[in-house]
Amino acid sequence: MQGYNAYRKVQGATATQNGRDLEYRLLAQVTGALIKAQEGKMTLQEKLNAILHNEKVWGVFLADLHHPDNRLPQTLKGAIASLALWVMRETRLVMDTDAPLDDLILINRQIMAGLKPEPQAMAG
C-alpha cells in the first residue's frame, strides 16, 4: 500500500491537475522508460527497474479501483482490473524469458490515448 499512498500524496500535491492528467503523465513516464529499455539504451538493472516500475503503476491503478472514492462504472473497473492483472502476468513473462516489451508499451499507449484530453477540451 506504500505505492498507493505515494500516488495519493502526489494527487494531493498536484491539485491543479485532474486524476486523468496525472495518470496520463505517470503512464507517459513509465512508457518512455520501457521504450528506452526496449531500444537497448539502458543497463540491465535500469531495464528491470523500468519494467518493475510499470508493474507498480498498474498495481496502484488496481488498488485505486477498490478505493471508496473511486466512482468509475463497475464495468470499467472490471476492464481496468483485467488489464492490470494482465500487465502483472506479462511482467513476469518478460522478466523470466526476456520477451520483448512491445505488448506492455502498446497497452500503456492505448490507455494513454483514452486519458488524453480532447483538443476541444483543452481550448475551452
Summarize the structure.
One of its GO terms (biological process) is bacterial-type flagellum organization. Pfam families: FlaF. The chain is mostly helical and 124 residues long.
What share of the residues does DSSP label as strand, in percent?
under 5%
- Helix content percent band: over 70%
N-C termini distance = 37 Å
- Overall, the morphology is globular
Q: Got a strand count?
A: 0
Low-confidence stretches: 10-16
Main sheet specs? none
The helix-strand sequence is HHHHHH
Distinct helical segment count: 6
Question: Please, could you describe this protein's structure?
Answer:
- With about 120 residues, this protein is mainly alpha-helical.
- It has 6 helices and no strands.
- The longest helix has 24 residues, at about 75-95.
- The radius of gyration is 15 Å and the shape is globular.
- About 20% of the residues are buried.
- Mean pLDDT is about 85; it is low at about 10-15.
